[in-house]
Model the fold of this input.
Amino acid sequence: MKHGSIFDLDGRPPLSQALPLALQHVVAMIVGCVTPAIIVSGAVSDTGFTAADQVILIQASLFVAALTTLLQLFPLGSKTKLALGSGLPVIMGISFAYVPTMSAVAESYGIGAIFGAEIVGGLVAIAMGFLIKKIRKLFPPLVTGTVVFTIGLSLYPVAINYMAGGVGSAGYGHWQNWVIALFTLTVVTALNHFGKGIWKLASILIGIIAGYLVSIPFGLVHFESIHQAGYLQFPDPLHFGIQFEFSSCIAIGILFAINSIQAIGDYSATTSGAMDRQPNDQELQNGILGYGVSNLIGALFGGLPTATFSQNVGIVITTKVINRCVLGLAAVILGFAGILPKFAAVLTTIPQCVLGGATLSVFATIAMTGIKLITSSEMSYRNTSIVGLSVALGMGISQAPASLAAFPPEITTIFGKSPVVIATIAAVLLNLLLPKSKPNN
Done:
């Protein structure tokens, strides 16, 4: 293979080739990377969390995504057996998987509690990295699929509330919010099914731009935050503080354990789809160790928890472009975006109805990914019981929070605020305890 080929993991292709391919990755993931920060900001908007704070949180999300991606692409200690980072062509970003729990934690204890829990979660991920060979069997596709499916279901109310204009907003439920949200959803769906190339890959971004432009005549776009934002600002470590709240640490720590296992799927999809091989145990271990350490660092910078981005895995598989310099250039672009407050401020002006219309399809995809994982196993009575009971307990308890009213607040935070934690625990336990079907039955 020629030196410098974009299809070579370690080649150095010319900038004229690398730049458009890098921008393709940025376009595909940037909305998904910053939206969790916007949603979490909304959960604490009535607690003195200012528009300037939201800009800083978005900046931190972009900057930390860049750092974590570079660590995965170019591992620290790569010449040693134990390194931080997989060395595989993956993109990291702020994960939607944490959004329901983060929103609940931020609303109950403040945003600093998220970062304290993220530090604990990073330590959990590091432990998972060292133990991955032993505990991987606890998370077969049936269990991880149940968890992913529950995450998707739990995010639907978030999208619907955003489509209606955002809970607590003066125009919540107004017809104009629904018109703009459905218009945005229509654009995204049409591009996903009829678009090709960059139009399909950038469907969510294009949908948001279209919805944004339509929102301006309705008076839903306000530019004050852009005028107030500076031109250049580097990350402000510990800006939001760090608070170690026990129940929050438990809830988010469990999610880190799940995402550590889920990352194996993205690593495996990348190597099998674009490199014609499976990742080896060392790559998996180093990748998860890098994931844990990068979140420890990210919490200090005010970045929300990260994970591998499946949409970028899809781009790598489709194009077969595995060159680390290409993906590294995408990370550099994200990093520059993360130190430009004006850019982050523009994102804060996007009306909530537009975000709701654009992200509903993302959340639907998450749920359907879970279903695909679930149905990759035989749908026996045992397996349908595991999925059904786990999802029923998780979604049911979270939608009836008063059912835990007699328990201590810590129990409510861990088990009652987000359906993901209890669905995960139930799925793991049921998979271990229920008798496996006999071959002849």
